[in-house]
């Protein structure tokens, strides 16, 4: 299969209650692949203290590709969402995994959490570990893996892996068509630790922004990118200078800004421009999803920096997975419903992902790298196997040829014998006297 068309895959996750939650926390249930939200009028009124709200007492149901309840494990989230996208990336299909939801609903925990307790690790560290594990097991191919990370804050794209990020270097970068950020630092990683360390450094830079810019991180989008290219390992010097095909995939893991509407009081202290910009990217993202879901001819991808970066990553040549995170508290039922309605819309967005290929020249340097001792041993085995298969093929072709010749020889002998018998018979009929005399002698 050379492509992976279909639609955006959508999962919902309800996080467990935590200390910071106020009031009752069981507004959301997960049943099979459905999320049920109890929009209980009384409970909402009690929590919000507003007498005039009149939401429907009927629970609302939303069906997705999968749901993760309060006791779900980080591993299950990775196995269902991350692993299929990673597997496709290894054969050259772009992938994007986004987490959407209000602040405090579990987006960062699900995607990025790193902890000394392995089972608590989020999707990105698991993806990195699995990537390098798969690569190490595939000695027949050579991989090139790079990492990058950006933050979109206040309609500005900042390189989170610029060595001088904290002194303002690598900020306000341009985004070209196809979501390419110009001047971005891509770090080539040979081991999982190198990539994990890069992403940890990128995250620390987001946190730095949070302390510096007054909780900016919940209003900023963090995008962690991986570029994976793969080609067959070369074992023969004759291949030097030749072009071989490689697959290239880009993987994005996107921790979006909190989707809640900024309350008026929250933006009062900010400059007008900043307050407008904070929401612009997320609003534009919602509009892009709505336009794609409704199959509109115009998709407003150019309306914000975030949607420009995601050009092609949603509703295009990319396998896209969306994880929507919700808060279990009655207090947040309104935002939970907004989130789940957005997720239902996203399920109607079609994608048409293809295997991305390019030609690369095998340089002498490539050849040397390919023939590192471990790979060389494997290579020799592959070549020996190939030779053995070739010899067997030759043997069976020779045997088939011999059998054919033998069959032809026998066929010819039979034909000759038949011809001989015919001749004898004809001879006897031509000399009836003799025949009849022989006949009469016998009786
Ligand atoms: P967001 O990124 O959406 O703002 P966070 O991921 O920071 O939210 O989560 C908010 C809080 O809830 C954090 O303290 C986090 O540790 C906790 N949390 C979120 N999801 C879970 C979960 N599945 N299990 C345990 N704690 C969680
Ligand atoms: Mg977060």
From TrEMBL:
GO terms for biological process: microtubule-based movement. SMART domains: KISc. InterPro entries: Kinesin-like_fam, Kinesin_motor_CS, Kinesin_motor_dom, Kinesin_motor_dom_sf, P-loop_NTPase. Residues 7-349 form the Kinesin motor domain. Keywords: ATP-binding, Coiled coil, Microtubule, Motor protein, Nucleotide-binding. ATP binds at residues 101-108. Residues 398-421 have a biased composition (Basic and acidic residues). It comes from the Eukaryota. Pfam families: Kinesin. GO terms for molecular function: ATP binding; microtubule binding; microtubule motor activity. Residues 398-425 are annotated as: Disordered. GO terms for cellular component: microtubule. Gene3D superfamilies: Kinesin motor domain. PANTHER family: CENTROMERE PROTEIN E, CENTROMERE-ASSOCIATED PROTEIN E. Belongs to the TRAFAC class myosin-kinesin ATPase superfamily. Kinesin family. This is Kinesin-like protein.
